[in-house]
Design brief:
The chain is of the alpha/beta class. Helices cover 22% and strands 22% of the residues. It has a single domain, classed as Vaccinia Virus protein VP39 (Rossmann fold, 3-Layer(aba) Sandwich), CATH 3.40.50.150. A hairpin with a 3-residue loop joins β9 and β10.
Amino acid sequence: MGKKIKSVFASGPPTHATPVTETFLRSSEYSEMMSKHLPYDGVYDLHEAQNETANFRYRHFDCRDRLGIFRWRGIQQHLEELLPMLTDPQKKIVDFGGAASSVGFNSIIVDQLSEDAFGNPVRYHGLSEIQGEVDVIFSSHTLEHIPDLDGVLKEITDKLKPGGLLILHIPSFSCERWRPGIHTNTKYNDHVWAFGLEQSSPIPNLKGYCDIGMKVADYLQIKQAEYCGDDSIYLVAQKEG
């Protein structure tokens, strides 16, 4: 515990920059920072009730330029089990869709964006571009943008080593403003999926509903699947072998 991973700033950190350590991620400083709001253009375009949802509080806060911070917040309740998996320097870890906020410097970013949050070039734009197999593929709030879900899950399965892990943190249908047809994004692709863990949609005529547990189970062995605190789904699956 407390082993230094690297500064959360890629270059030119301000004097208050805090190193990303296991101790820091468990600290009251981190918890307090995560609870703050960050005013930004468009906040008041949302319905007032949506401003108070857990996912809104988790994803809009002060110090957003800290590497991976908003994504760690969304899965904070799984911090103890995730830290060893995502910070092990001996493992080959991929952050799929992580250019905007990678979970750590040990991870290999795969993203369609040409640069990461700090202006560094993104080397890999597809999983197939990475040589060899990997130990862990982590993906947070990315799969909902990809129409060919079977295609990407097959790619993920092919890239994982036998026994390798897929860790997903994806939006749940339960958040209305994340549903297809409601969520619109001028910078990235709109949402095409409304994920849940029930075989059929809990909401009649919900556009794009997908039982993500059943879908992933077509490719990998599900180890854990549950709704988590920021109107999202946390899922861990393992490749056989």
